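Reminder: ligand-aware prediction takes two inputs, not one.
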Amino acid sequence: MRIVVISDTHISTSASPDYKKRWVNWMLVGQAADISRRLVQDVNTLRPDLVLHAGDITDNGDDDSFRTAAEIFGKLEAPFRFTVGAHDTYNPGARDRLAAAFGYRDFSAASATFDLPNWRVALLDSSWWLKKDGSEHPALDWDEYGKGKYLGVVVPRQEVERLSTELRANSQTDIILVTHHRMAKRCEADYTGMFYPEATSKSNLTPFDTCFKNSEEILKVIGDYDNVKMVFSGDAHMNELIQQDDKLFCTVAGACVYPMEYRVIDIADDHVSVAKRPFPDSSYIQESFAGNEWPMGRERDSSLSFNVRRK
Ligand SMILES: [Fe+2]
Ligand SMILES: [Fe+2]
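Here is what comes back for the chain with fe (ii) ion:
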């Protein structure tokens, strides 16, 4: 069985073709739709059994970009499932509109847990917005954001409950978890040079700032289940592989920004191999590169193989 995991395509139909956004390197937002079309062609040559998207499908969470994304990923020959990223939630009602673009009744139908041979895949929504008063909101309110009302993103209470229920009911099946943001304590990479002071006012961000705020809680929930074997995340636009507590935590690079790599997971019986694959057109990669190699990750973030220990 082969699973491809892509992330952070940041498709935008409103951005002009030469629009780039500095986030460590240059995100080619204006060309993101073209990049994703090319990505789909490349993924199809690998003949995967499933393609997962770890979120930030679009850059602004608008209907036109949702429809374009659905048209682009509709060309995948394998089944396609996705989780939602913070960028997809920039407008009220975004989740259901995203789901509708992909032909689902609503977001709960789009994000339902599903089965593969010997495995189960759970899509966890880490892209709700947590305010300093403790309230959780499905979409970003830009006025409130401007007033500094938010602490960050969070897996909302009902989603924590959904995950707990799911894990309790399926403790005998190996589980793959997909969530947009990474979890605290799993960010081991050297973050020196992550943010260029001249490129962003957020140069004092720490790795923890880019994780969802209740990740300690989620780590505790999944820590009770050794059948949770793999966790895939995006958001950081970087490569990272961490094995801890008999689980693999894999961060998938961004599709529209250097190094433009994605993940290919091959599973045969109890053997799992995780590799990365570069985007097939190097001119985009060169255009995106602004001198920061850091998102490529360390050598050990490239690939690994392991055997799944089954009860
Ligand atoms: Fe992103
Ligand atoms: Fe993100």
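Confidence is low (pLDDT under 50) at residues 195-204. The longest helix spans residues 32-45. We will return to this case in the review session.
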